[in-house]
C-alpha cells in the first residue's frame, strides 16, 4: 500500500522498483531504481521535527528491503540506505540512520541513530546503536555495539562474508525482474 503521511507527502518510487502489494510505504520516501521491497515491509516517513519539517527515507538503487523489515525515523530525521545494500528479514532501521553502499544487515537486527559504513556486514540478531561503524567492519551475530564499544575488538569483513552479501543483493535484484514480469498477471 502506497499512501500519504499526515503532512501530505507521497512516496516517490522508481518505475523499475518492485514493491510487494502487502508492503506499506508511507510519506516522504524515495525508492530508487531496481529496488526490491518484500512482503509486509513497512517504510514510514511521517514524524516531523520541532519546526514541522522532515527529511526523507531514501532507498538506494539495487538494494533490497526484505520481508517484515521496518524502516522509520524519530522526529523527521533522515534515513538513507545506500546502493546494493540488503536489509534482511524482520530487521529494524530506525533513524536518524545512514546505511552505506553494499551493506548487509542480518535477520532481526536493529540499527538506530548510527552510520554503518560501506561494505559492512551486521549479522543476525545484532544491534548497532548510537555509533558510527567504519567501512568494512563485520559484526558477528548477537553482538551489541554502541558508542562505548571499542571498535578495535570488531573484526573486518572477510572475503566469504563479502561474497555472501553480494550474492544476497544479486539474488534480490533478480527477484525484481521476475516479480515485475508477474505483477501484470494478477
Describe this structure in words.
- This protein has 186 residues and is mostly beta strands.
- The chain has a single domain, classed as Hexapeptide repeat proteins (UDP N-Acetylglucosamine Acyltransferase, domain 1), CATH 2.160.10.
- The protein is 13% helix and 33% strand.
- Strands 1, 2, 4, 5, 7, 8, 10, 11, 13, 15, 17, 18 and 20 form a 13-stranded parallel β-sheet that branches. A seven-stranded parallel β-sheet has the order 3-6-9-12-14-16-19.
- The two termini are 16 Å apart.
- 38% of the residues are buried.
Brief overview, please?
It holds the Pfam family Hexapep. Belongs to the gamma-class carbonic anhydrase family. With 186 residues, the protein is mainly beta.
How are the secondary structure elements laid out?
Layout: E1 2-3, E2 12-13, E3 18-19, E4 24-27, E5 29-31, E6 36-37, E7 42-45, E8 57-59, E9 64-65, E10 70-73, E11 79-81, E12 86-87, E13 92-99, E14 104-105, E15 110-116, E16 121-122, E17 127-129, E18 132-133, E19 138-139, E20 144-145, H1 159-182
Parallel strand pairs: 1-4, 2-5, 3-6, 4-7, 5-8, 6-9, 7-10, 8-11, 9-12, 10-13, 11-13, 12-14, 13-15, 14-16, 15-17, 15-18, 16-19, 17-20
Protein name: Carbonate dehydratase
InterPro entries: CA_gamma_LbH (IPR047223), Gamma-CA (IPR052265), Hexapep (IPR001451), Trimer_LpxA-like_sf (IPR011004)
Family: Belongs to the gamma-class carbonic anhydrase family.
What's the tally of helices?
1
Q: Please give the largest β-sheet.
A: 13 strands, parallel
Helical content (DSSP H or I, runs of 4+): 10-25%
- The share of residues in extended strands comes to 25-35%
CATH class: Mainly Beta
Mean pLDDT: 95
Poorly predicted runs are none
**What is the CATH topology?**
UDP N-Acetylglucosamine Acyltransferase, domain 1
End-to-end C-alpha gap: 16 Å
Amino acid at each position: 500500500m502506497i499512501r500519504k503521511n499526515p503532512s501530505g507527502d507521497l512516496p516517490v518510487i522508481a518505475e523499475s522498483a518492485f514493491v510487494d502489494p502487502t508492503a506499506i510505504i508511507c510519506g516522504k520516501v524515495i525508492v530508487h531504481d531496481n529496488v526490491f521491497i518484500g512482503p509486509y515491509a513497512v517504510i514510514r516517513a511521517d514524524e516531523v521535527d520541532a519546526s514541522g519539517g522532515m527529511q526523507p527515507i531514501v532507498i538506494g538503487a539495487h538494494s533490497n528491503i526484505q520481508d517484515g523489515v521496518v524502516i522509520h525515523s524519530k522526529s523527521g530525521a533522515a534515513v538513507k540506505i545506500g546502493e546494493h545494500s540488503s536489509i534482511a528479514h524482520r530487521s529494524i532501521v530506525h533513524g536518524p540512520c545512514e546505511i552505506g553502499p553494499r551493506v548487509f544487515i542480518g535477520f532481526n537486527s536493529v540499527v538506530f541513530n548510527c552510520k554503518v559504513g560501506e561494505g559492512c556486514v551486521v549479522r543476525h540478531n545484532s544491534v548497532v546503536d548510537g555509533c558510527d561503524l567504519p567501512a568494512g567492519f563485520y559484526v558477528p551475530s548477537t553482538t551489541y555495539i554502541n558508542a562505548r564499544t571499542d571498535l578495535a575488538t570488531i573484526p573486518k569483513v572477510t572475503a566469504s562474508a563479502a561474497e555472501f552479501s553480494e550474492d544476497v543483493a544479486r539474488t534480490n535484484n533478480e527477484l525484481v525482474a521476475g516479480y515485475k514480469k508477474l505483477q501484470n498477471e494478477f
